[in-house]
Amino acid sequence: MESFTQAVSDWYGEHARDLPWRQPGTSPWAVLVSEIMLQQTPVPRVVPAYAAWLTRWPVPAALAADPPAEAVRMWGKLGYPRRALRLHECAVAITDRHAGAVPSTVDELLALPGVGAYTARAVAAFAFGQRQPVVDTNVRRFVARAVQGQADAGPPSTTRDLAAVETLLPAEPARAARFAVAAMEVGAVVCTARTPRCQACPVRPSCAWLRAGRPAYDGPVKVPQRFAGTDRQVRGLLLDVLRGSADPVGAADLDIAWPDAAQRARALDALVADGLIDPLPDGRVALPGDGPPSPRR
Ligand code: SF4
Questions:
Q1: Ligand 1 center to residue 9 CA distance, Å?
Q2: CA of 146 to the centre of ligand 1 (A)
């Protein structure tokens, strides 16, 4: 396995994309921001949002000092805007519990709002150079093919996936962290889902899937999610109206965002339930923390 991990890490040294969160000196906060943005948004859309976010909030305390509404506004079109709220909650927790410094242990990271098994280990490895299995979709697919000889990884299982990658990690933390990011990169740009670029792959000579004759995937099939016309699209449109307004908005402003009243109401309820908007006593709605202060008793 030594030659496998070395080949992946060497390839990374020559071919890695030049991404801003990989620059030397990137702070743990910047790594955390990048990882949360990258969870469900492609790299090209994250790059400018990441830069703008860190220019405005270079440290967690700066974000914690602003209302959550500003985080939702800055999130813009990255999608899945609950991540903006979780990042704001993270900034508050880091400021309150860790004196403004992103914690370094996986357990402490896991205790932060919205930080799951992947993100905690990604920050521990990429920001703090620890030996951690970092497993995203691309790594799962790469390992399934190169090591396990399967066309795809099948349904995720945190325990099984972490164990599969853990066995590949070099013992020395810095080398393990390097392999972790390198495996992600191979999965993202070489061992891609539809058309793996095997000719350019650093582990082509040993790839178990190629050796097995590229057997077809025979596990459970993921059903692609449609977006147009879904409640998720309507939630995004309603949130756009609020982002574009400095003041709370009323029903008339929201009505023009989507014609179906029942779906609009459902989307609005979901946004309220998620804490992404606040209903106000006068019937209008606002981004969280953006409404008029409650009257004192
Ligand atoms: Fe993936 Fe092809 Fe590399 Fe095997 S040789 S790991 S299938 S890119």
A1: 15
A2: 6
With respect to residue 84, please indicate whether it lies within any of the assigned structural domains. no
Question: Is 136 inside any structural domain?
Answer: no
* pLDDT tens, position by position, 139-174: 999 999 999 999 999 888 889 999 999 999 999 999
- HEC profile of the chain: CHHHHHHHHHHHHHHCCCCHHHCCCCCHHHHHHHHHHHCCCCHHHHHHHHHHHHHHCCCHHHHHCCCHHHHHHHHCCCCCCHHHHHHHHHHHHHHHHCCCCCCCCHHHHHCCCCCCHHHHHHHHHHCCCCCCCCCCHHHHHHHHHHCCCCCCCCCCCHHHHHHHHHCCCCCCHHHHHHHHHHHHHHHHHCCCCCCCCHHHCCCHHHCHHHHCCCCCCCCCCCCCCCCCCCHHHHHHHHHHHHHCCCCCECHHHHHCCCCCHHHHHHHHHHHHHCCCCEECCCCCEECCCCCCCCCCC
Task: Provide the residue range defining the domain that includes 257.
Answer: 231-286
Q: Of all protein residues, whose CA lies closest to atom 6 belonging to ligand 1? A: 146
Answer whether residue 68 is part of any domain.
no
How confident is the model at residue 121, as a pLDDT? 96
Site to probe by mutation for ligand 1, drawn from 12, 194, 210 as the one with most ligand atoms within 8 Å of Cβ, is: 210
Q: Which residues are catalytic?
A: 35
Q: How many angstroms is it from 21 CA to the middle of ligand 1?
A: 26
Give the chain's domain count. Answer: 1
Residues within a 6 A CB radius of ligand 1:
142, 145-146, 190-191, 196-198, 201, 203-204, 207, 209-210
> 151 C-alpha vs ligand 1 centroid, how far in Å?
10
Reported as a single tens digit per residue, the pLDDT across 48-82 is 999 999 999 999 999 999 999 999 999 998 999 99
Ligand 1, atom 2: closest residue by C-alpha:
198
Smallest CA separation from ligand 1 atom 1, residue: 191
Is residue 25, in this structure, part of any structural domain at all? Answer: no
